[in-house]
Every structure is written in structure tokens, then in C-alpha cells.
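Amino acid chain:
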Amino acid sequence: MAADVTDPETPPTEQDAARLSDDPADSTTVYELVGGTDAFVELVDRFYDAVETDEVLRPLYPEDLEPGKHHLAMFFVQYWGGPRVYEAERGHPMLRRRHAPFEVTHGGALRWAHHMAAAIRSMAFASAAEFALLDYVARFTPSMINTFDDPPTL
């Protein structure tokens, strides 16, 4: 049975997240529903098209965007039920650790989420897949913030 994504104490496993149904007889994954690897490559291309013209995010990325595009596409492929290429090439995702060297502010995270959500919506995926992907972006984005725009005041 898929984990309750509303309960932060029981985060979904990759297998839970990839499946669209709690019904054991329905093993359809998001990966299958969106059309496989090519769909995630296209999604990431659309996302990076927006990043390339974003004056806040673009300076945070290296000059050559191709390796990052490949890593993100393969991460999505693996996370959503496809082949485990990301793990074979890079090991465990360790997303917070991999992003620790970069100053991820609240504002930057929101821009990232905005561009990713726009890319997801532009793909015209089936509604169940779009919902799952947008839900992931909403849950994932805050966890990457490691630098605060404005220090809290008392």
C-alpha cells in the first residue's frame, strides 16, 4: 500500500511514490503513464529552458547544463518507476548533500518550483501523473532550502 504522503513521519518509498494506486493489482507507475524516459528528458529540457533565462537561478548553475540535465532526468526516471540509471551512474541520490554547496534560498526554491511546475503543466500529462509530479515538487522544494533570505527577527 502506498504511504500516506500527508504524514511526514512516513515518507513514501520510491516504489510507493511511483505507483498511482494503493490497489496491489494496479502496478501502473508514473514512469509508464507519462511515456517513459523520453518524457522525462523532454520535461527536464523544458525546465532548463526556463532556467537558462532566469536571472536569479542561472548564475547558480554551471556553464555547461548538459550533465545536470541528464542527472535530473535520470533521477526522475528512477524515482517514478523506471530503470535505475541514476543510481548506477551516481549512487544514492543524497539530494540535500548534493545541493549543500549551493545557496538555496526560499526565493530561489520558489523560482525553481515555479519553472518545474510550468514545465510539468506544459507536458499535458494525464491528470494523475501531473498531480503526482506537482505534489512531489511541492513536498520536495522546501526541503532543499539551506540559506535564509532574511534572518528571522524577534
In short: Residues 29-144 form a domain with the Globin-like fold (CATH 1.10.490.10). The radius of gyration is 16 Å. The chain has one domain: 29-144. The CA atoms of residues 71 and 89 lie 9 Å apart.
